[in-house]
């Protein structure tokens, strides 16, 4: 499942990307005209995964499976994100240890509002923010143990 459309920038501290809420968006409830804002957490988590994958590839390593363990301080500034909205996704590494645990501060902003929503959700509006707690096992044996548990 790919939720990001484009990676805008990536460095050792974080990543920015773009995404769009289209009528056929995989997370969009059937026949809905808007994505529930809490699902923005999944879009932000995919930004974290993209950041990790890019850095693994730069080190010549395989891209590893990662897990979204939860979130802290999840703020839903809007109840929903209308179909047609273009998004800016930003993730910034806050903390990561050598065992694969990490925390990323994430934001989802309106890049371009959906038609008819320009006043209610202007460009630049903060839609969703929070700290994502993630884990990516550093070894196959740890991953196998997790998957067999």
From TrEMBL:
Classify the source by domain of life: Bacteria
Name-wise, this protein is Thioester dehydrase
Q: What InterPro entries does UniProt report for this protein, alphabetically?
A: ApeP-like_dehydratase (IPR016776), HotDog_dom_sf (IPR029069)
Question: What Pfam families does the entry give?
Answer: ApeP-like (PF22817)
SUPFAM superfamilies in the cross-refs: Thioesterase/thiol ester dehydrase-isomerase
Native organism: Conchiformibius steedae
């Amino acid at each position: 499942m790919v939720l990001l459309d484009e990676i805008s920038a990536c460095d050792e501290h974080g990543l920015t990307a773009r995404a769009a809420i289209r009528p056929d968006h995989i997370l969009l409830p059937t026949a809905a005209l808007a994505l529930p804002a809490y699902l923005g957490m999944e879009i932000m988590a995919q930004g974290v995964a993209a950041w990790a994958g890019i850095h693994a590839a730069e080190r010549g390593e395989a891209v590893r499976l990662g897990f979204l363990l939860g979130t802290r301080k999840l703020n839903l500034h809007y109840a929903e994100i209308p179909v047609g909205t273009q998004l800016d996704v930003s993730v910034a590494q806050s903390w990561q240890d050598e065992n694969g645990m990490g925390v990323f501060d994430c934001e989802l902003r309106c890049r371009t509002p959906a038609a008819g929503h320009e006043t209610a959700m202007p460009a630049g509006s903060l839609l969703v923010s929070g700290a994502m707690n993630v884990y990516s096992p550093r070894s196959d044996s740890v991953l196998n143990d997790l998957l067999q548990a």
